Amino acid sequence: MVKMSCATILHFMIILLIMELAIYCSGKNTTFGCIERERNALLKLRASFIDPSNRLSSWNTKDCCTWQGVACHETTRHVMTLDLKNADYRYAFSEYFNGRLSSEELDSSLLELKNLSYLDLSWNNFQLSPIPPFLGSMKQLQYLNLCGANFSGVVPYQLGNLSSLRVLDINAWYGNLAIDNLMWVSNFSSLKQLDMSSVNLSQTKDLFQAFRLHSEFHWRSLLIVLVTFE
Ligand SMILES: *[C@@H]1O[C@H](CO)[C@@H](O)[C@H](O)[C@H]1NC(C)=O
Ligand SMILES: *[C@@H]1O[C@H](CO)[C@@H](O)[C@H](O)[C@H]1NC(C)=O
Ligand SMILES: *[C@@H]1O[C@H](CO)[C@@H](O)[C@H](O)[C@H]1NC(C)=O
Ligand SMILES: *[C@@H]1O[C@H](CO)[C@@H](O)[C@H](O)[C@H]1NC(C)=O
Ligand SMILES: *[C@@H]1O[C@H](CO)[C@@H](O)[C@H](O)[C@H]1NC(C)=O
Ligand SMILES: *[C@@H]1O[C@H](CO)[C@@H](O)[C@H](O)[C@H]1NC(C)=O
């Protein structure tokens, strides 16, 4: 009979514990930090903004996934969410409306965020620049909110390429957006909510045809569109 001392048994138990811990950790795949390329893109985006209230002051540490408004995938660490909504929007008509990020145009460094599915830029100030057509190549987008962000010009038909989109808000509180051709709206197979309030549809040729094609359209959204029809 093999005699084992208490010390030997303890030794075995510790080894077992360490092995289990190692298996547990590899299974969880706890990766920290963020992807360097995406971090650089966010820094470039930050540099394109004037940020008078210093909202993006947390955007300077190594792990960009912990930055204000940024959320990453649990394991792949890709940036999935960028929420830069200006929370001051309730004061849109008062002197408290100062938390806006301001930029002459939306920076194309966003394109580096290949897995971005949620983008909220509402109530910031893009100084009457056009909505950039490059947004149409961000195929992972499910949520796009450009409400009250002072964009102007014709809404680019390239947005019709965003086939995963569930929510699109191009409410033109400020700025003066127009749509000349709505056929691309019929491309949105997953769209649940569309807000085009205040968008100038007076030159839109195919409004009713586009919505006939989109049979699953919500009445609420349709109403919003009709209210703005001139
Ligand atoms: C762990 O995460 C990496 C991404 O950094 C991924 O390539 C890999 O497949 C993951 N492994 C597991 C077991 O989930
Ligand atoms: C990120 O995007 C790549 C390429 O588009 C894709 O292969 C991958 O599955 C995506 N990962 C996540 C978590 O969405
Ligand atoms: C929109 O941008 C223009 C041009 O920079 C500016 O004059 C105007 O005040 C902006 N609108 C708002 C509501 O900030
Ligand atoms: C839209 O998608 C088509 C087909 O995938 C592609 O050829 C075209 O370049 C895309 N346009 C934009 C603006 O991304
Ligand atoms: C509609 O979607 C298809 C496939 O994604 C794309 O090839 C086409 O260019 C889109 N049409 C418009 C008007 O965006
Ligand atoms: C809408 O656009 C048309 C044509 O560009 C223009 O004549 C009209 O004044 C615009 N309406 C508003 C409310 O801006």
Characterization of the model:
Residues 37-72 form the Leucine-rich repeat-containing N-terminal plant-type domain. One of its GO terms (molecular function) is protein serine/threonine kinase activity. Residues 1-27 form the signal peptide. Residues 218-230 have low confidence and may be disordered. The chain is α/β, with parallel strands linked by helices. Helices cover 22% and strands 11% of the residues. The protein has a single domain (31-227), classed as Ribonuclease Inhibitor (Leucine-rich repeat, LRR (right-handed beta-alpha superhelix), Alpha-Beta Horseshoe). The chain has four helices and eight strands, in the order ααββββββββαα. A six-stranded mixed beta sheet has the order 1-2-3-4-6-8. The protein is elongated and about 90 Å long. The structure holds 2-acetamido-2-deoxy-beta-D-glucopyranose (6 copies). One 2-acetamido-2-deoxy-beta-D-glucopyranose is lined by residues 176, 178, 200, 202-203.
